[in-house]
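Operator note (shift B, R.M.): manual run for BAR domain-containing protein requested after the automated queue skipped it. Running by hand, logging everything below so the morning shift can see what happened. Input copied straight from the record, untouched. If output looks odd, do not overwrite the archive copy; leave it for review.
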Amino acid sequence: MTTALNKLRKTLTEPDHANKTAFRDYDDERKSRDVERLHSAMQHFSEAVTNGMIAMKEVASAFEAVGQSFTEMTIGGLPAPSAGVLGNSVNLGEGEGLEEADDAGHLAVNYAVSTTSTKLPDETTSQVRRLARLFAEEARKMNEGSPFQSFNAGVHRDVIKRVLPVTEHLKGIDAVERDCAQHLQRYNKLKTEVEQIERRYARKGKSFVDSKSHKKCSAKRDAAWQAYRAKKDKFTEAFDLLTEVNDHTAAQVIHRYLSLNNEYLRQMTESISKILPAMEEAYPLNSEYSTIQ
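Run finished. Output pasted below as returned.
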């Protein structure tokens, strides 16, 4: 959003409109840029928090989907392919490939023996299936239960709605800033008119002291300056209040957002920790089975 003071600054610096003696309030211009940046920050904040909420929901949904797939994977054991089935998969021409067929037969037998020799005990298989169902249930609770609901409600209540005072102050300061810029523009316009009269008299070699038009324009210029200063004070006051409100809001929102995410992720980790020790005991990764391809 281009602010009123930025528009005025651009007008004053364009070659066709430049007035070398036009007054520029660099302090107000800096504040104007800060207000503009804060407007942009609020828009980015809203988009980022929304995307973060969607991402957390996607994590919870994916978590549940993985849990369901684990349950499907452990519904029952898959039978090992027989030597005959594997051998028949080799396409042999008449009188060709006897050596390849013999090798395939040996591989099939070895595969069957290897699978048989490393068959999981029924107790282990049963435990893995039970843990898979338990994980699926924990994942479902994370997605449908109170963890995500509490996270979602907390973000809306303590993060998204918490910045509303800042957005309201931004709306208010926009009007004050625009009013201030308009009064500065009026002052500079009258200042230019006074200087044009003075230059006209100077070219004629006359004094403008007794000029009625000069006195009239000078009085309007001085009144415009005082009016501008009053508007500037209001803009400064509004800016200081905006800064104070924003500083407190930022601290509160950051703290609360981190707390909410920490609690949600803690519960997700906790749901895994309920199952992982039993899974490590049932099927340790450094066991003889971990080398099976």
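Quick read of the result: The chain has one domain: 4-14+25-280. The chain is about 80% helix and 0% strand.
Leaving this for review. - R.M.
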